[in-house]
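User: Please fill in residues for this 353-position structure.
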């Protein structure tokens, strides 16, 4: 119930706003009341007290007695039903020829007694903390990697593609095809990629899923020796590793992907080598202003984008009537975030160049 002093204050504020030129509906909206409520409060030109006082609600005539409520609690807490919810208890009681109360009454009684919670042995759902956010402002600052299946010569046989991608440039910085998943094989690939890219003395974050190859002892030791910061997705949340997942989709939807599988491991390696060459050197990536990953990785994208911007500026100068707004944005793409939260709360690897 809203007190009379509050009503008087609200009406005075609304009248003041209307006198100053504001619309009554807008003033009411600011105080979160409706115009109809305002009219009811000020009927007859004065603020009226509430004519609808709250009264105690009478107890329903058909309410359960204290003994009946106690019987429901005794059944719910018995050895037979202690791990079951009311939706399971009520039908089982019916099969035994017993009726104590409706299912909704069971829930209501448990809630009133503070027992409406998880009742089984399985652990209740846990809200997991999201993975740490990382910002990449240059190459070799944040990498992600994952393993995917490549179909073999017969159904049920697979080869395993290991892929590492730099999220800033989208360059594939390491890949290999093996016949099994292994932390040892993964650690060798990581070591090789770090040496090739020459970032062994630079801070580097490596993000992966929660699979055993990603968290194996050999993998952890390798990353510690190389000074790599480990980052992991939440269990069973593929969205936490979006760059690797998107790369796998691009890979498997290439027109020359063999739908009937690869005959040998060598065939799979040959195909991935060709794909990597195309992706890094020829593929114009939409997320980095349609330059190739290698151009972005080496810093050559700025010249390409500057040339495009100059071309568009000249085209607009020659035919300005054909342009209704600004020319296309050919500025270099900015920093890239892995699982962003807010720019102020997430740790930053380094500022963008």
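Assistant: Residues filled in for all 353 positions:
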């Amino acid at each position: 119930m809203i007190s009379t002093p509050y009503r008087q204050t609200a009406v005075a504020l609304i009248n003041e706003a209307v006198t100053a030129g504001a619309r009554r509906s807008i003033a009411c909206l600011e105080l979160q009341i409706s115009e109809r409520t305002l009219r009811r409060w000020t009927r007859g030109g004065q603020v009226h007290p509430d004519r609808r006082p709250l009264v105690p609600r009478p107890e329903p005539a058909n309410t359960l007695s204290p003994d009946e409520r106690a019987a429901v609690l005794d059944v719910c807490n018995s050895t037979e039903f202690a791990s079951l919810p009311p939706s399971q208890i009520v039908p089982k009681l019916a099969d035994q020829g017993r009726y104590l109360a409706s299912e909704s009454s069971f829930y209501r009684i448990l809630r009133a007694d503070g027992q409406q919670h998880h009742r089984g042995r399985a652990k209740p759902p846990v809200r997991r903390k999201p993975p740490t956010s990382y910002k990449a402002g240059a190459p070799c600052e944040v990498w992600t990697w994952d393993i995917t299946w490549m179909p073999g010569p017969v159904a049920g046989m697979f080869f395993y593609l290991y892929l590492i991608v730099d999220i800033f440039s989208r360059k594939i910085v390491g890949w290999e095809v093996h016949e099994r998943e292994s932390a040892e094989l993964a650690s060798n690939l990581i070591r090789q990629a770090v040496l090739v890219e020459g970032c062994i003395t630079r801070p580097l974050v490596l993000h992966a899923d929660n699979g055993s190859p990603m968290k194996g002892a050999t993998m952890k030791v390798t990353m510690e020796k190389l000074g790599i910061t480990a980052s992991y997705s939440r269990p069973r949340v593929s969205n936490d590793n979006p760059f690797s997942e998107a790369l796998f989709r691009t890979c498997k939807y290439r027109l020359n992907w063999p739908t009937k599988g690869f005959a040998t491991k060598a065939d799979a390696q040959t195909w991935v080598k060709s794909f990597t060459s195309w992706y890094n050197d020829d593929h114009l990536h939409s997320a980095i202003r349609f330059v190739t990953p290698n151009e972005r990785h080496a810093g050559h994208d700025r010249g390409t984008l500057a040339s495009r911007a100059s071309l568009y500026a000249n085209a607009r100068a020659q035919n300005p009537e054909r342009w209704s707004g600004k020319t296309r944005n050919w500025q270099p793409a900015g920093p890239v975030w892995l699982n962003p939260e807010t720019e102020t709360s997430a740790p930053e690897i380094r500022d963008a160049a």
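For context: Residues 71-112 form one domain.
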